[in-house]
Amino acid sequence: MTGCHVMAKPGSSRCNLNCRYCFYLDKPQQPVMSDDTLTAFICQHIEAQPGDEVQFAWQGGEPTLCGLDFFRRVVALQQQHAQGKRIYNSFQTNGILITDEWCRFFKEHGWLVGISLDGPPELHDVHRVSRSGNPTQHKVLQAITALKAHGVEFNLLVVVSSHNSQHPQALYRYLRGLGTPYLQFIPLLEMNDHQPDEYSVPAKSWGDFLCAVFDIWVREDMGRVFVQLFDSTLGVWNGFSSQMCSLGKTCGHAFALESNGDLYQCDHYVYPSFRLGNLHKTTLSKLSDSEEARSFGQFKKSSLSEECQSCSVLKLCNGDCPKHRDASGKSALCEGYRTFFLYSEPYMKVMRDLIRQRRSPMELMMMLRQQNQDGQTGC
User: Residue 267 catalytic?
Assistant: First the structure.
C-alpha cells in the first residue's frame, strides 16, 4: 500500500446552488456525515498514509452546508489521531456562505481554500445560479474579498464550458487580477450516449482556449501565475508524472467518500458498480489495496485505442479520463488537447532545456520579448 487520495463529501450532494451544468445534483442525497463516520474516516485516512504528511480534501456538493462546527470537530479529531504526522486540509467551495468566521477558522488552521468561479458576471452567471435562479458572482467576490482580508491562501477553479471558452483572453486577465496566483481550468464534458451535452466545451474550443491563455501566460506571467495544466505539462516534459489524474498514465487510488462511509473508485464514478465498500465494514487501507481498486487503476491504460497508443502526444494526455471517451474510444476532447500540446511543445522544450542548464524557465519570457522587438514570431 502506497497511500491514497480521498475526496470527502461530508454533506453528500446537497448544494445551495443550481448550476445548470452540474452532474452531481442528481445523485441521491445522504444525511450529513455522522460523528461515527467522520471519526472512522479520519483515523483510517491517517493510518492509510505511509508518510509523515496526510492530505485531507473536503468537497461536495457544498461542504459549508455542514456548518463550521462540523469542521471544528474535524480539526479536533485530526489532532487527536495524528500519530505525529503533519495534517493538511483543502476545502473546495462555491464561496456563497463564506463569512469572516469561516475565514478566521481557515487562517488559524492553515487550510487551503478552492473557490469555484467561472469568470466575470457575464460569464459566471450564465450557469452558476442560486436555487431561485439568481446570479451568484457578486457573492463569490465577497468571499474572495474576505479570504484576502484574512490572509487565507486560496486558488480559483474555473469550469470551462461552451460559453466562457469563447472569451479566453478576457477571462484569464480577469482571473489573474483577483488576488491569487493559482488557477485551475477544468473542461466541462458531460456525455450523453457518447456525445457531449450542450453545456460541454467542444474539443476545438478547448484547444483554442488553452492556446490563447498560454500565449498570454508564457509572455507575461510565468513565475507569478501558476496554471495547473501548464505547470503539469512542463513537469511531464521534465520527466515527472502528471499532476492531474485525468492526464496520468493510470487511474485509481483517488477515491470519493460519501457521507455514509461508502467509498467509490473516483469522483466521476460514483455509481453502484464502482462502490468499493463502506468504511464501517472494511478499512480504507484494505479497500485501497484491494484487487478491485488495483484493476480499476489499470483500466485506463489497457483500454486505449490503437490510434491513441501511436499518438505523438500520448505521454502528455495518456488518453484523458476514461469518462470522457466517445464511441470511437478516444477522448471527446482529443482534438483540443492535441492542439494545445503541439502548440506549446516548442515553448515547453525551451523551458525544459533551461531547467536542465540550471537556469530559470522564466528566461523564455525575455527571449520572446526580444523576438517581438526584432519582429520575429514563434519560439
Answer: yes
